[in-house]
Amino acid sequence: METCSAIRFSIIVPAYNEAQLLPRLLDSIEVARSVYRGGREAIEVIVANNSSTDSTAEIATARGCRLAHVSKRSIAAARNGGAAIACGEIFCFIDADSQIHPRTFEAIDEEFATGRIIAGASGLRLERKSFAILLTYCLLVPFIWLIGIDAGVVFCRREDFQAIGGYDESRLYAEDVIFLLTLRHRGRQRGQRLARLRSVKALGSTRKFDEFGDWHYFPLMRLIIGFITGREDREFADRYWYKPRR
Fold first, then answer.
1. Exposed end of the chain (fewer CB within 10 Å): N or C?
2. Which domain holds residue 180?
3. pTM
4. What is the pLDDT of residues 113-132, one digit of tens each?
């Protein structure tokens, strides 16, 4: 690996038992690295192995990724654990079951070059559609517009990540929402905003819909109340995020 001073981007992948889907994400990252005008060596890939019991770590190592071992079972802790060993000027976070767009790094560079943003997200499109999934999406879009955040590849400068203390590890879920809202507040203090990169959307997995059903998001609307009040449903979080059947 090149020295830290040569690294522009650190793309950080939190991963728990992701042996099945991690390779396709790494394939997509490699394509994006190969077309990046700054050169592929300006981008490092870090897999934050969150106590996997499958071959996630071996796959990451074999593919030339840097490996962060994170024992605390928390998505926020995994993201922070990856960031702790990262060398890049810009941190990017992406879920292991996703795929990124080939121009992701170019688009992020272009946004930061404007000087108008503090952080942002690429947005995502789902790998399959159904009436229930489309209806869910339509109901969530106003919420996304209202708070001005998105999912997919989430990115920020190292200095801003460190200034806000990274992801809130006290949160079992919605840590990514809190993260972007905190960055947005910091950005407003210096006239910057969050960016949404609609032209380079990541591909998002629908495995939660496959597992829990295409209509399952509607009963989950109660989580929005928990997010607002700070009262998380630990039993649900364990079943939905931390004890997956994989």
1. N
2. 4-124+151-203
3. 0.87
4. 999 999 999 988 888 788 77
